[in-house]
Amino acid sequence: MNLLGLANHGLDNFEQIAVVIVVAIAIISLLYAWYLRNLVMKKDKGDENMIQVWDAIRVGADSYLSTQLKTILPAIGILTVAMYLSVSIVPPTAEAIEEFPKNTEVIIAIGRTVAFVLGAGFSLIVGQLGMRMAIQASVRAASAAKRGFNEALSIAYYSGTVTGMLTDGLGLMGGTIIFIIFGKASPDVLLGFGFGGTLLALFMRVGGGIFTKAADVGADLVGKVENDIPEDDPRNAAVIADLVGDNVGDCAGMAADIFESYEVTIVSALILGISLTTLTGELKWIVYPLIIRGLGVISSIIGTFTVPIWENIPIKFLRAHDAEEAMFRSYEVSSVITVGISFIIATTYANDWKLAALTSIGVALAVAFNPLTSYFTATKKAPVQEIVDSTDSGPATTILSGLSLGMESSVWALLVIAISFICALLLYGDAEPIYVLYGVAMIGIGMLSHTGNNVAMDSYGPISDNANGIGEMAWHNSDDEEEMKARQIMADLDAVGNTTKAITKGIAIASAVIAAVSLFASYMVDINRVLASLELPPLNTINVASTKVFVGLLLGGALPWLFSSLSIRAVSRAAGQIVEEVRRQFRIPGIMEGTVKPDYAKVVGISTRSSQKELIPLAVISIVTPLLVGMILQVEALGGFLAGVILSGQLLAVFMSNAGGAWDNAKKAIEDEPRDIEANTGKGSERHKAGVVGDTVGDPLKDTAGPALNPMIKVVNMVSLIAAPLIVRYEGLTVGSGIVMAVLFAGLVWAISQSKKTVK
């Protein structure tokens, strides 16, 4: 049997069939996304007022994404050329020469370049189509809230599932087809695929994050605090930009973010799997991760489809009490299916139960982040209630309480990740180190096997937020009982959305760490391949006691702080401009009376300009810094640099994400209290104003700087992985390398100074 030429790669009959089935599952995932899209699009968009608000959001989001695409395309073009040239500088691996004995360099160069464009294109498609689906769903969910809770939940969640299934389908299809074409040479090509997706995710995360939080901060400070008007009051010129930002940041940005984690874990698993295949002669190390990813897609389809069912299930103790519990149940359904079948596959095909155990650890790690993050960010849990209580004594104690919560949550998240790594060590501790490294990569495969569920939960958040905003703007003066009931349903769904967004951010951060550790392992493997070809001793350990390595560790630990600083500074500058613009418009006669319509487009324009300004400089910092460290301090120090980036980035990202999510939900908890100014409860109270300040501080942390660290960590690791063989081969300072270092340093200085400039 020779399906699609797979026998040429050494696959037996079962493995050939399995790989073809994986491609078929990827197609099924895309068809399921299309089915859910049609299901949602059949729902009505509500009354004329709702459609007017929705259309303004749609136009603003389309305008932003068009501008963003024009900004990043030149950079993608330059890096496409660099991908092609990278193969002529760093020769292909021995596996690539074995697969393609003739014209190896040209074949790998073309393959890596096409894969780079494919990875970037898929990431862009997931982000753009996911965002457009979210916009279509929000107005329909708002309309459905008039008819009942379950229909509104179904629309919001199924729309998010569309994005999740696109992520699953395209990510699985891309990685598998590259393996089908290139076989054991696929790691040479997959580097381009992973880098393309990672770079686009960085652009979309940074740009969307700055846009959304600049508008949100400006809207809250002037609207809620200064003028004591509702969150999505149509008199506030920043509300449309705020609602647009939810889509371009949390939908487009998050979808691209998780998609590239999905890509990168496949890349690292296959790189390490091919090393084990070379060592053992067995192809199970390559095929098993692909099978698990296919199994995860099927599990996600079944799990996501059950979300609306839990609300009406006749068995009382199984019935979900709210939207959050229904989503958790769907995740558990997917998890049980994946874990159960993985043991059957591992024992019957791979004859190694440890592979299924690694898959289970990864699934358990993702499941563990649900209650862990929920505990620190949900409105009903003790930590958020502590923040609510702290608002009695003003904004200062509110900030301190949130900072404390975020710091603690980061420690527990790191501990959970560390335990998963220890489990891999226990399973393969008596074998060669490469087995443990592969085990970590397989934990990443298991953790992201339910990407469809993860993205659905995340996209649900901005969809329900937008639905709530559309309802509040369209019915802000209404006392209709049906509309008031619908607004409460949407407010409840929105509160759950804050928690699910925080949960998926936690999973995204953890997956970024595991993907980065897997890439770090691949980095060591690649270095040793080059060293072996040069007949030099292997680099089995990185000596932290070495001064060069320790300097690299320090620089790596500092990079996430610089990156976050520049991201938050960008939000602060843009928010300041929006505050001034909203204040100016409030002084226009008729705005506060509701007889004159604000200029929403002006604020959208400010947010767009501010966010686009930061895209290229922050990407340059992420790409140039590891190259400089590697060229100046060499490969061992670059390894220390990567370790510093991973550790510092994880702690900082979780801290910012959870602190911001907790502040946001503390504010919402106060808003749900009965309004009584004398008793200091509800909207307009001093407690509420303190909560708004906390939320305002937390917004750029949880939706800009924190999430942007995920793709930044992986960009740094991908660049290091691609550059490592070159650095090994060309050690020492020459005129040519000196010129290159000078250019890179100039680029770094330009990027930092550019990020500090004020937008005119």
Tell me briefly what this model is:
By secondary structure, the protein is mainly alpha-helical.
**Count of helix runs:** 19
**Class of secondary structure makeup:** mainly alpha
Q: Helical content, roughly?
A: over 70%
Mean pLDDT: 86
Following the backbone from N to C, one meets helices and strands in this order, namely HHHHHHHHHHHHHHHHHHH
Distance between the termini: 65 Å
The share of residues in extended strands comes to under 5%
What's the total number of strands? 0
Model regions low in confidence, pLDDT < 50 over at least 5 residues: none
Number of domains: 1
The biggest beta sheet is recorded as: none
Oligomer: single chain
Tell me the radius of gyration. 25 Å
Q: What would the principal axes of the Cα set say about the shape?
A: globular
